[in-house]
Please model this.
Amino acid sequence: MSDKRLSIEEAVATIESGMTVGIGGWGSRRKPMALVREILRRDITDLTVVAFGGPDVGLLAAAGRIRRLVYGFVSLDSIPLDPLFTQARERGDLEIEEYDEGMFVTGLRAANARLDFLPILAGLGSDVLPANPKLRTVASPYSDAEYVAMPALPLDVALVHVNRADAQGNAQYLGPDPYFDDLFAMAATRTIVSTEKVIPTSALLDEGSFHTLLFSRIYASAVVEAPQGAHFTTCAPDYERDELFQKHYAASAKDPDAWAEFQRTFLLVDEAGYHAAVARFHADRGES
Amino acid sequence: MITRAEIAATACADLFRGSGAMLASSFGVIPTIGARLARLTHAPDLLLSDGDATLFADTPAVDRPFTRPEGHLPYAKLFELIATGRRHVIMGAPQLDRHGNQNLSAIGPRDRPTHQLVGARGAATNTANHATSYFVPRHSPRVFAPTVDTVTGVGADRAAQWGLRFHDLRGVVTNLAVLDLAGRDGTMRVVSVHPGVRVREVVAATGFPLEIPADVPVTRAPDESELHLIRAVLDPRGLRERELPEA
Model:
C-alpha cells in the first residue's frame, strides 16, 4: 500500500492559486492551522475557501489569499468574532457566498454523492436565497412542497487535521466531535490530512475504539505529521485551545502595529519557528 | 427583591412550558438559566447539551461543567436532530423586525457591511424546522428595527409566504417585556411587561408599532422554589445580573 507521507512543504506545494479549498474543523476547533500557516508562507492566492470559519479564514482573508469565501459563520468560539475576518468584510475585500450551516452541510453531502443538488428546507424565506442568484428552489414531485435545491460544494482540495493517522491516510479523531472532516474529504478531489502523530495501522485502536476511525485511506492523498498542527485551536484530547494565545491573536489583529509585530514573530517564520515563538510567548508570561 | 434578570430567566423557562422530550438549546446566560430551570421544574424531559458534542443528564450551574453524559450529539447529528423538529432554541438577535425576521449576519450593505457579525449560522435551519425564540438583553429601537439588513432567522410573514409548515416562532424575552408573534398578520404583540415597566417604555424602545392588548399583564415572578433554583443552584455567582443589569 502506498505511503502517503509528505513534508508540510511538499504537501502544500500541490495547492495552486485559484483552487477551491475546503478547510475542516469548526470555528476555533481542530483547524488544520499548520497547513494554513504553510499556505501563508507561499505564493498561493485567489482561493475559493469553503469552511465553517475560524482563525483559518481570518488569517487567509487578512493576507489577501481569498477571492471568494463560502461559509456559514466565522467565529473564534470563546471570542465571538474574528477581527481579521470582520475587518476584511468591512473593507469590502471579500466576495462571499453565505449559507446557513444546514445548507452548507447539505452542499458537502451533495458533492460527496456526485449530485448537482440536494433538497433541503433550510434557507426558504431567508435572505440566503436572494443574496445568491444562482440558488434555486425545487418542487416536490409528490406534493405541493417546495425546497431549496442546495447546489453541491465540490472541492479541489480538502485540508483536515486529525489526532492520529497511519501513513496510508486512515484518519482518526480522539476528541468529542468529528465535525465534518469526513464530508470535506469525500467532497474533495484530493485531501491533505495533517495529524498530531503518524502511527502504524496496527496501533490505530490503541487509543480509541474503531468508532473513532473517521475516514479511510481511500479519501486521503497526502499525510503530513504536524504535532501541535491545530494550534491555537482545540485538538482535544491532545490539547485544548490555547486561549491566552488566541486572545493575543485577536487583540493584535485590532491594531496595525501589533499585527505587524504578530506577523514578524509568528507568521514570517517556519513551522518550527512558530512553535518556538509560541513557547517564548508563554514563557514570557510566567508559564512553564 | 426579585431582579429583572430573574424575571427574564423565568420568562425564558416558561418558553419551554409543555415541552416533552426535545433538545433545549440556548445562547447567553439568561436563556441558559431558563432552559435549565425548565428542566428542573415543569419540563423534566428536556435534553441539554454542552453546546459541544455531548448530551447531559445532570443540570449544573451555568458556569459549571456538566458531569453525567447521557448521549453523543456531535454537530452532524445535531443537524439531523434539527431536521426531525425535536428542538427549541433561544437565539440572540442583533436585529429583529415586527414579523420576527432576525439578522445575525451583518449590519449594513452585504458587500461592505458597517458591522460584520458572526454570519448566517444555523438560523435559517432552526426557523425552518422547529420552535425558535429570541432573547434580547437590551430592548432598543436599534434591535427592534422596522427592517433588518439581512434575514437570517425567518419571520412569520416570510414563513407564511414560503409555506414553511414547521415554522414556530414562540416568543421574544427582553429586559422589559415578553413579546410574541400573535399580532395581526403575524406581527409582534406585547404578551406581558416586567414588574415596574410601563407599556409606553416598551413602545418607546421599539422601532416599529407593537400590537398592545387592552390589558397588558405583568410578567410573572418566579415562585419561591424557582427563585431558590436560580439563586442557589443555577447561578450562585450572579452572572445573570451582568448580562441584564437592573435599569
About this structure: The longest strand of chain B covers residues 168-174. The first helix of chain B runs from residue 4 to 15.
